[in-house]
Amino acid sequence: MLGLRRGSFPKDELSKLVGSAELGEALSAGYLTQQGDQLSLSPSGRAKIRVVLAGGVYDVLHIGHLAALTEAKSHGDVLVVVVASDTTIEMLKGRKPIFPDEDRRKLVEGLKPVDKAILGYEDVGMGYEEVLTEVKPDLVAFGYDQENLERSVREIITMRKLKIEMVKLSKFENEKFLSSTSVRQRLSEALR
Amino acid sequence: MLGLRRGSFPKDELSKLVGSAELGEALSAGYLTQQGDQLSLSPSGRAKIRVVLAGGVYDVLHIGHLAALTEAKSHGDVLVVVVASDTTIEMLKGRKPIFPDEDRRKLVEGLKPVDKAILGYEDVGMGYEEVLTEVKPDLVAFGYDQENLERSVREIITMRKLKIEMVKLSKFENEKFLSSTSVRQRLSEALR
After folding, report:
1. 8 Å CB contact of A98 and B66
2. B186/A107 Cβ within 8 A
3. Does B191 contact A191 at a Cβ distance shorter than 8 Å?
4. Per DSSP, what are the bridge partners of residue A79?
5. Neighbours of A79 (CB within 10 A)
6. What is the share, in percent, of chain A residues with pLDDT greater than 70?
7. Nearest C-alpha neighbor of B148 from the set B66, B93, B96
8. How far is A161 from chain B (nearest CA, A)?
9. Is residue B124 within 8 Å of residue B151, measured between CB atoms?
10. Binary contact (B111, A110; C-beta < 8 A)
């Protein structure tokens, strides 16, 4: 998974982050390999890490998004979020988003449950076909209202015989109040 | 500072978080006191922690907010954010916010640089007088456009002879594009 799969890191920095005892355990279990003072994740180490993928537009952030991403993160160890590109949104919704994609990506990556946010490809279903290949998630999480996306991803997974679980996130209890659509209505009222 | 000042925590949980070596050092330096297996922060321990206070409305979050809070956090160890209550906003701006205060507070607390977000009191200047007493910050950070707030806080600090630094945060490079005012304009265009 992106930075997690590739690259190596200085042993002393990692040691400060996770403690030298934990690092020693991971080394002797073979989850990490050492070259000089650089540590890298081994294939068996990667296998222990459960990567969750979620995605969306995230134009005007609200606590429904935060709740969904927190729930998504609870299904694994690392949460990667695909943020729809401006082109994808214009194609899907026939309108420009309020915030440009790179700003939306940065803000989503600023949320506590999110380890990494990437921009989607300008392709059907936010380019999940490419994203699945790149991120190699163990699980893909869908919002309660992302039925079309869920269907396309299910097709990709079936066609390519990928070993990826799918999970549906709960509808936020306050969702009626908080869906992006009702946010747009309330924005429009507030701006009258 | 709120949870940091009061209360004690199980030693083994803290040990997992920061490593037993660090915990041992903090204990022998007198920054922590132990009762049974519970550890608490001592006054000299609290003195080592630099608490930063920032505040605002945070109605529609954008990366200008994230940049400002990240900069605020860089001035200390713990960042507490005061989120203006609905009543304060109505009083100041003569309009309701788009999102209710408890939602805004939760979302701000969901941002990586923020350790704790609290609601402001329904008082002049978001109730900074009460907040300063409660949070006991070492430093208060102000957005480049929070001149009125800065003035009232300076008065409180001078009158009550508090030892609190004040710092002005930089204007986000993209701020012209991203200020809440221009966001409102762009929202209004997008909703036409």
Report:
1. no
2. no
3. yes
4. A52
5. 25
6. 84
7. B93
8. 36
9. no
10. yes
CB nearest B61 (choices: A61, A70, A191): A61
Which of A166, A127, A130 has the alpha carbon at shortest distance from A150?
A166
Return the amino acid letter for A177.
F
- Give the CA radius of gyration of chain B: 19
| Interchain CB contacts (distance < 8 Å): A and B | 70
End-to-end CA separation in angstroms for chain B: 46
B111, A111 contact by CB (below 8 A)? yes
Q: What tens digit of pLDDT does each residue of A127-137 get?
A: 888 899 889 99
Closest CA to A84 of A106, A104, A98, A107: A104
The stretch B168-186 carries a mean pLDDT of 69
Q: Flag if B103 and A62 touch (Cβ within 8 Å).
A: yes
Per-residue model confidence (pLDDT) at position A3: 43
pLDDT per residue over B2-11, tens digit each? Answer: 444 456 888 8
Residue B60 forms contact with A (CB below 8 Å): yes
Q: Is the pLDDT of residue B192 over 70?
A: no
Q: What is the DSSP letter of B76?
A: S
| Percent of chain B residues past pLDDT 90, beyond the cut | 50
Single-letter amino acid code for the residue at A150? E
Q: What is the ipTM metric for this complex?
A: 0.85
In whole angstroms, what is the distance from residue B189 CA to residue B183 CA? 10
